[in-house]
Amino acid sequence: MELLALAVLLFLGSLYLMWVLGTFDPDITSNQVGAWHFAYFCMDCSNELSRKHLRSQICPFCGKIGSPFEFDWTIRKVRRFNNGKVEYKEEEK
Question: In the chain, what is the greatest distance between 2 CA atoms, to the nearest angstrom?
Answer without folding.
Answer: 53
